[in-house]
Amino acid sequence: MTGSAVGDVGNESGKLFVKFRENLRMNQKKQRFNALLNEFSGRRVLVLGDLMLDHYIWGTVKRISPEAPVPVVDVNSESLLLGGAGNVLNNILGLGGQVSFCSVIGSDSAGQWIKERMASKGVDLAGLIVEAKRPTTKKTRIIAHQQQVVRFDHEDRSVLPAKTNRLLVDYVLRELPRVDCLAISDYSKGVVTSYLLRKVLPAAREQGIPIIVDPKVNHFNLYKNVTLVTPNNLEASQASGIDIHDESSLLKAGEAILKKLSCDAALITRGEHGMSLFEKDGAITHIPTDAKAVFDVTGAGDTVLSTLSLALAVGAPLPDAARLSNLAAGIVVGIVGTAAIERKMLQQMLSSD
């Protein structure tokens, strides 16, 4: 056999070995993630945050209005879904977990629909505080040809009465001993306040309960000493004061957030660029996106928060929790409208090639 032939055989053997090693690594990861998913059953997450009703109007556009240069939508159907912290609830239930829930609604038809919907899912309504003088937050989206045409909101973001704040704190403090994780869904609609977090965060830390926050920039300083924050790229830029435009600025922003909040980790979600996990010990994990197609990012942050919460509830390492949440987000962005992940969806993805 010539030297060239021997070299070709050697190169081919090397390629086969690399492929074998990669397949082995992927199979081990799939087995690990499937084991994590199976452990989600029975784990309880306390979801605290802004609850809303997502109202969708579905239709088609065939003409422009003669009254103004705007499309005329012929309505085909309407749908109602739990949004905001309610979508976090949906995701956790879909993944096989259990939920304790704490938020505020109004005494209106939207609030009544939410109560009935949550009760039908077997959720205890003891933490759902009704504020009679406040409308239930409602987002109405008009969708035509798989695209959002316009959105209009009904909401009141003013400060909640002191009595309502005390009721929220009392419920959370009662529930903490029976939950495995605290998930805070902050949409800056009035539920998450400095008073609330000053009362509940120290109690959760003292009991060793992981705390995960889907943040809003105007509240960023309130999340000190939590386990994990999950800002998107824009929120991370604004919170850190660093314009993220390349890898160097990304690294500086991640480090700045860790220092600012003294948290265990920050997971920056970066859209088509995936996610970047920064841990306080200096470890950095970049995770490429798993999305096959992106039709609607509505609710993707809720899916990430939910998956992370259950993963940390079962004691998963942060990188594994982040990778699993990345898989889940990659599925829901391929669905138009507010979507919730289900465990079988992840299992099917893990079982595929």
Q: Count the domains.
A: 1
CATH architecture: 3-Layer(aba) Sandwich
Order of helices and strands: HEEEHEHEEEHEHEEHHEEEHHH
* Strand composition percent: 15-25%
Helix content: 40-55%
CATH class: Alpha Beta
CATH superfamily: Ribokinase
What is the alpha-carbon Rg in Å? 22 Å
For the largest sheet, list the strands in their spatial order: 5-4-1-8-9-10-11-12-13
- The number of helical elements comes to 10
How many β-strand runs?
13
Which regions have little confidence, pLDDT < 50, spanning 5+ residues?
none
Mean pLDDT: 89
Strand count, sense and barrel status of the largest sheet are: 9 strands, mixed
Please characterize this protein's 3D structure.
- This protein is of the alpha/beta class.
- It has one domain (34-52, 82-137, 155-351): 3-Layer(aba) Sandwich (UDP-N-acetylmuramoyl-L-alanine:D-glutamate ligase), CATH 3.40.1190.20.
- 42% of the residues lie in helices and 25% in strands.
- The chain has ten helices and 13 strands.
- It has helices at residues 3-39, 85-94, 109-120, 162-175, 194-206, 233-240, 247-261, 300-313, 318-332, 343-351, and strands at residues 44-49, 51-64, 71-84, 98-106, 128-131, 138-144, 147-154, 181-185, 211-214, 228-229, 265-269, 275-279, 284-287.
- β4 (98-106), α3 and β5 (128-131) form a beta-alpha-beta unit.
- α6 (233-240) crosses α7.
- The longest helix has 37 residues, at 3-39.
- The mean pLDDT is 89.
